[in-house]
């Protein structure tokens, strides 16, 4: 600091102005050390007792380089690196490997763990503390964008749609809310899309009239692997006692057979994870059956079950088979085939000879001579039909 002060004390303001003039309008960093910058600011302000803040303000106002924000400086440094120029031509996305394209699809179309609410909402309120509760009672917390904000990418091309659409339905959790919403969604969702659903959740009150239909449609989803059922066993009992309405009384504690559509829900197979929130009774009733493997010909959405058609047994080698024995089998088969053809040819030749003899005899012999001829033998119907046929 002392060296800079001595340096500047020997210079008047005019000479200092001449030295710093090129840097007043330049975005480049001035060719001065930190000590020299402080000395210049002190001399130009005629204030040897200037505070650090005043010196910093004068430097920022005098030299544009020091007036830049940190973000701008980082950007300029990045741009100054030896980076390739941006390619203005079209990028061949489908030239990438399928594995890389699938990774990109998952990053683009995958939402957070909270999932997506099936509806037309622009933003979905989510919270990990309220995952087991109906969405209607969730407090304002974290908002995630609606699904339509990224689905526009599916309009790029048919090729893009065919590859990316299954990824969207496969990697996301879809909250269907109430039973009516679940039923409406599964009825109107195209089978080509519904077959890719893997994770669904809904709120089950146990009294909905459309539960049986909704669960029947749910059981037709071919690749469904995770199911989150949000139920409140205690809430059902309290609500039934307070309302006094017969349709709202659900006696879960005594028996779960009173729940609407439970048989269709229990019939679902092939799941890997079944979560039944706040109802140990219902979880114990459903989980063992729903985790069983799906039958081979279980019906799927939009397709009829294929019947069991016995397939022809494929030829396989037994313990004594080898290449040598296989060649021997081929030779034996060809020999048998040749013998069969030769036998058939000999038989046909004898038929032709016999037919020619009978035809000649029929032409040159009268009926009486034929009756007295002891050489005449009974003939089969095949011989007679062949003998009486016109010449070819």
TrEMBL record:
Residues 89-206 form the DUF7730 domain. Residues 365-375 have a biased composition (Acidic residues). Pfam families: DUF7730. InterPro entries: DUF7730. Residues 286-314, 359-380 are annotated as: Disordered. PANTHER family: 2EXR DOMAIN-CONTAINING PROTEIN-RELATED. This is DUF7730 domain-containing protein. It comes from Saxophila tyrrhenica. The lineage of its organism: Eukaryota, Fungi, Dikarya, Ascomycota, Pezizomycotina.
